[in-house]
């Protein structure tokens, strides 16, 4: 069951007009929200990021935070499974095809839920391969826009080469992954780029930094050079659906020892403990 413009209905019965600006222009934004034990994870943070994205494309938020909470809870209740992930999609609406913003139309609002599988144990234990590529996306990657073709093409580079993610480099420095945020470890220090218009401000990115601070793991938020990435002792990937995952090879060469490292193992354990507290309603 999904939500579309005020109605709950089976996804097979959901349709949008062909002149929806999301379909024509990619004129819209989205959010992905993990749900553990039927509780949305860090919902306040996700709604704050949604507001940032809407502000970035100059689209008025159609609902208050409380209204969003009620809608999302109803979608969760309509679907099976204790662990889900919500996909929330807002476009500027339906209008005659013209680049200029139309006046007096209502936005299209779509919410669906899918099962949230746990990251495969083998990937968590053995790690995954990644490649690097030039970050050729637009200059507002902080907006979670539905027009994801550059990310799709960059991620496909990884799939074509037998890897799981593409780490993006712009002017010799790390930005993020095609569908993730990236951390590296060098000399027992966790390093990651600062939030900027060139990367998506990840919710899991925030959680990992909070866990590092709370568990005395040294970290620095600063520009990370390509050379530092290639000489890293560890590389970690974070995202809402993959949580925290180790990258053990980069462009066909081992990262550090070629196995998940101690900082990853500590952060992964801390993340699972934190998530367990969320599921028990202790946060």
UniProtKB/TrEMBL annotation:
Belongs to the class-IV pyridoxal-phosphate-dependent aminotransferase family. One of its GO terms (biological process) is carboxylic acid biosynthetic process. PANTHER family: AMINO-ACID AMINOTRANSFERASE, D-ALANINE AMINOTRANSFERASE. One of its GO terms (cellular component) is cytosol. This is D-alanine transaminase. Keywords: Pyridoxal phosphate. GO terms for molecular function: catalytic activity. Its cofactor is pyridoxal 5'-phosphate.
């Amino acid at each position: 069951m999904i939500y579309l413009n005020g109605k709950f209905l089976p996804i097979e019965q959901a349709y949008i007009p062909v002149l929806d600006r999301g379909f024509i222009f990619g004129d819209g934004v989205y959010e992905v929200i993990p749900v553990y034990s039927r509780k949305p994870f860090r919902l306040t943070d996700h709604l704050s990021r949604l507001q940032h994205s809407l502000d970035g494309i100059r689209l008025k938020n159609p609902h208050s935070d409380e209204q969003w909470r009620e809608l999302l809870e109803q979608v969760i209740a309509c679907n099976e499974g204790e662990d889900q992930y919500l996909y929330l999609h807002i476009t500027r609406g339906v209008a005659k095809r013209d680049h200029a913003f139309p006046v007096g139309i209502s936005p299209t609002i779509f919410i669906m839920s899918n099962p949230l599988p746990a990251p495969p144990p083998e990937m968590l234990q053995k790690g995954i391969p990644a490649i690097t590529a030039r970050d050729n996306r637009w200059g507002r990657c902080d907006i979670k826009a539905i027009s994801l073709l550059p990310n799709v093409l960059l991620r496909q580079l990884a799939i074509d080469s037998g890897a799981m993610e593409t780490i993006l480099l712009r002017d010799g420095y790390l930005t993020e992954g095609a569908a993730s945020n990236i951390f590296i470890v060098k000399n027992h220090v966790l390093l990651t780029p600062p939030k900027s218009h060139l990367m998506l401000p990840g919710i899991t990115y925030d959680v990992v930094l909070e866990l590092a601070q709370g568990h005395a793991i040294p970290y620095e938020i600063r520009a990370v050079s390509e050379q530092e990435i290639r000489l890293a002792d560890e590389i970690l990937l974070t995202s809402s659906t993959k949580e925290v995952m180790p990258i053990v090879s980069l462009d066909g060469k081992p990262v550090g020892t070629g196995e998940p490292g101690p900082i990853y193992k500590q952060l992964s354990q801390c993340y699972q403990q934190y998530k367990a507290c969320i599921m028990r309603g202790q946060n």
